[in-house]
Amino acid sequence: MTGTADPDRYTRLLERLEANEREFRRLGRSVLRVQEDERRRLARDLHDGIGQNLTALKHRLAQLRDSVGAHTPLHDSLEAAIQLCAGTLEDTRELSRLLRPPILDDLGLEPALRWLGRSIGESAGISIAVEIEPLPPLDGERETLLFRVAQEALNNIAKHARAHSVLLRLVEREGQVQLQVVDDGIGFDPAATAGGSGLSGMRERLRLFQARLEVHSAPGDGTRIRAVVPLQGL
To answer: Burial level of 188, CB count in 10 A (0-12/13-18/19+)?
Structure first.
């Protein structure tokens, strides 16, 4: 009869939508894997290629400097070139670590998060405490997911929050890993910046793993974010 609801048809449509959503998440995770592989390759090329070339150049300049008389214009110019080379080498190494820190692949998530907190804290002049409870084993994709969300959250704090102290906690509760980042900064109105400050990117990345992002903040009251990632199922 015309206008009569067809339960089977709606069931099929719902199943199709759910299948499309699963396929969307699968394709999205594939894109993230490709991006991380490319980051890993670029980081290795920077470290092993450009980094080693800069190291060799620095040593050669030092040899030339030592072969000329001290307190001469040429000596001073070579010394300045050595310092420039050393600074560029350190910048290259830092970029390599930020692209894909080897510690994440070599030692896992906990050491990588502690390194991240120490690195951003030192560069931004913020006290960042990292607390990590014992966790069940995590696959590489979830470790990368949690690291990237933490990296984005801490970078946002360093750029915008004017915070003095930050707490980063990683815990497991009822089959879910929770990444919590709390700062004492100036805060903001989440409704007014729903897609800004990297929040949209974090939400989209988490969505691909059926995870979610919770944000609590107010002007003058700091910010608390929590990423909740299920341990099972995709």
So the answer is: buried
